[in-house]
Amino acid sequence: MHEIRVLDERQVSEMMDHQPVLAVPQRLHAMLRTLVQASPLQRKGPAIHLLGFEDTELNAYAAD
């Protein structure tokens, strides 16, 4: 069963304070650039950044 969890900017900042940020593979950065370029809304919006954290669970988070 999959669980949806939503993190706000404060929670992401706390994760960064308590866990080391890992390098994200360049292929994921390239994939993100491709997705942003394909979306007129995302091209106008704020910059999107990828952060990697070591975790035993498969998951992904997004925050404004």
Report on this model:
The protein is mainly alpha-helical and 64 residues long. The chain is 42% helix and 6% strand. The protein has helices at residues 9-18, 26-37, 40-44; strands at 21-22, 52-53. A two-stranded antiparallel ribbon has the order 1-2. The longest helix has 12 residues, at 26-37. The two termini are 26 Å apart. The mean pLDDT is 81.
Give the overall form.
Answer: globular
Mean pLDDT across the residues is 81
Which structural class do the helices and strands define?
mainly alpha
Strand content: 5-15%
Q: How do the helices and strands follow one another from N- to C-terminus?
A: HEHHE
Calculate Rg over CA atoms: 13 Å
- How many individual helices? 3
End-to-end Cα distance, whole Å, is 26 Å
Helix content: 40-55%
**What's the number of extended β-strand segments?**
2
Report the biggest beta sheet as strand number plus sense, adding barrel if it closes. 2 strands, antiparallel
Q: Residue ranges: pLDDT <50 for 5 or more in a row?
A: none
Strand order, largest beta sheet? 1-2
Spell out the key features of this protein.
mainly alpha, single chain, two-stranded antiparallel sheet, 3 helices
SSE map:
Blueprint: H1 9-18, E1 21-22, H2 26-37, H3 40-44, E2 52-53
Antiparallel strand pairs: 1-2
Outline:
This protein is mainly alpha-helical and 64 residues long. The protein has three helices and two strands; from the N terminus they run H-E-H-H-E.
